[in-house]
Amino acid sequence: MARLRRKACIALFLFTLFVFGTLMGLRTLKPSDGFSDLAPGLELLPMIAGKMDRRSVSRGATASPDQDRPAGSDTKAVVSNSGPEGTIFYDVHIFYYTWYGNPDMDGKYIHWDHILVPHWDPKIASSYPRGRHMPPEDIGSSFYPELNPYSSRDPDVLDSHMEQIGASAAGVLVLSWYPPGLADDNGEPAEDLVPAVLDAAYRHNLKVKGMCVAFHIQPYRGRNDQSVHDNIKYIIDRYGDHGAFYKFTSSTGKSLPLFYIYDSYLTPPESWSEFLTPTGSHSVRGSAYDSIFIALIVEERHKYDILAGGFDGMYTYFASTGFSFGSTHQNWKTIKAFCDGNNLLFIPSVGPGYIDTSIRPWNNLSMCTRVNGLYYELALQAALNARPDVVAITSFNEWHEGTQIERATPKKTANRVYLDYQPHGPDHYLELTRRWAERFNKEKEQWLM
Predict the structure, then answer these.
(1) Coil, strand, or helix at residue 132?
(2) pTM
(3) How far apart are the C-alpha atoms of 410 and 403, rounded to whole Å?
(4) Helices (H), 37-108
(5) What letter does residue 263 receive in the DSSP assignment?
(6) For residues 311 and 194, what is the distance between their CA atoms, to the nearest angstrom?
(7) Which alpha helices (DSSP H) does 178-298 contain, by range?
(8) How far is Cα 269 from Cα 246, in angstroms, rounded to an integer?
(9) What are 262-307's pLDDT values in tens digits?
């Protein structure tokens, strides 16, 4: 019996040591720890002229119906907004996509039937399947949505999404946006859906006061500083007076629209400065279209380009630590210090995990397992440790890359077994987001004391 007890104690000790080692490993992930050198969500094509293609993937004060359009001001000194109102928090933003379609609403499946993206090296590509997914049983995701392969045009889907986002406590929906007539390479134009998203958010305002919509400007073909200037005018003229249009309160007291500019590094800083600095040739500063502009930081050098370009802050987007300088959790305090020293906002982006092998079957090295929510919580803790102005969630519904916190359901077909959130329920990541949003705002109150 003593020998059996001794063996049992040794086994328990080894198991405890294994669990402790696993947790410490997750806390100390580095770029070399099994991650790709390229950020997730990109097409992982070779670097061509310093550009990376992201074809398949692809913030604050409340906005009220009686808000006036901002008259413009020097927005270089900006601070976080006041925080919570009711049960949502305006310093928690969440990225949102409206590129999905199905036969009932759109006459065909859109995005759920995503192609299997070939590897850029023909030798490697030859070892993996080609073609596209065939919904509804086979979709371009490793998880399966509780709402089934839905259409973003379905009013019931939009209402469900607003209810879920409200449950997560995120106060600002950041809408992926292309100009009218344009779309990503695997989708269809969806700019005409913006009013429906704004209206759905506003309807939700009647139950949870204050949910707002900001815009995430995507890198469409031909995008430059002048075209983005035109985009900003279009968006503010068309949607700026809507009750759900998001505005951020700057340190000067002005309520200004806020825009995320995805892949901002594709345009050189000297071009951005013509648009975003007071002395630029077509400066937006001080005009009726002045706004808060947030650039994407991927490489370390981008923080200097973002400053030189006249941006008001930077965000990291990617959900996986180690994929880029910007997305690596250990760098967030350094980035925040740089931003503090230059009057810039810092918005770290966190996500529950990453898996895109349903559309890039050769990309196993980029996978970040959720570990039943542990990965998400470690990322959220890393964000709070940096004491940011705003935290962004990647994402609500980017199903292709497995970063979604939207409700998922267990599903097994003759040919596939989808991942799910078990042993937890479909609301697990919504609940985790709310818990950490509440913690973020409690801690922020102490930071500001």
Answers:
(1) strand
(2) 0.82
(3) 16
(4) 103-106
(5) T
(6) 25
(7) 194-205, 225-239, 269-276
(8) 26
(9) 999 999 999 999 999 999 999 999 999 999 999 999 999 999 999 9
